[in-house]
Every structure is written in structure tokens, then in C-alpha cells.
Amino acid sequence: MSTQTTKILVFSHRPEVRETIITAVGRRPAPDLPRVDYVEAGAIADVLYEVDNGSVDLLILDGEAQPTGGMGLSRQLKDEITNCPPIVVAVRRKDDRWLATWSQADAVLVHPLDPLAAAETVAEVLRGSAVPAVKG
């Protein structure tokens, strides 16, 4: 059995949103992928620290986070970080998927999160395939 893990950063200023995302994606989004270790971030500084250190494999950002939303943060990271890890943005409305496209996110999740769709989306992004469709 492999001891390899994937590190996913989950960003939201609200702990209950982070918990919802972590619960929906789960500890192993697909059988062919390693287990997931989560890093929770409640502030932009925490996200930037982890990304600058190259310590995360994927980011899941809350599009409704305050004071800076995940979509703006996604765009900033994609524009400024060479070899930026893949980013999934969680939004409240399906109509917001165009904003997630603007943000250069690799995939979008829509609340309320469907655990099967959330795990599938994260698994596809971790495997390296872009997932432009809204899941959830």
C-alpha cells in the first residue's frame, strides 16, 4: 500500500464552508488516486504562503469568501504564479460559472455540493484533465 498523499488546500473565511467542501470531496476522491490530506486556509495570506512554498497539489477556493473571493484569488494566482497548482472554485449559483471561467479556474463546483460530483470533479482535475462543465 502506498503512503503517497495528495495535499489539497481549501480556502474560505467560513469554517463551515471548508468543512462542507472537505466532507463532499472526501479523503480519497477516486480509487486510482492517493489519499488526500487537507490544509485549511481562512485568510489570503495562508493561501499565498502554501502556494509560494509549493506545498499543495490542488486548491479549492470559496467563490463567496470575504473580503476577497475565491474567483479573484484564482485569477491572481493563475496570473502571478508560474506552474500554479490546479484550482477548483466553489460557487453558490450555476449562473456564476462564467465568473469562474474568467477566474481561470480549472473546474467549478456548485453549492449545495453533491459528494459524487465533487469527488469526480476533483479526481479529474488531479488527473490533469480540465473540467469546464459545472458539477454539482
UniProtKB/TrEMBL annotation:
The modification 4-aspartylphosphate is found at residue 62. PROSITE patterns: RESPONSE_REGULATORY. Residues 7-126 form the Response regulatory domain. It comes from Lentzea flava. The lineage of its organism: Bacteria, Bacillati, Actinomycetota, Actinomycetes, Pseudonocardiales. It comes from the Bacteria. Keywords: Phosphoprotein. This is Response regulatory domain-containing protein.
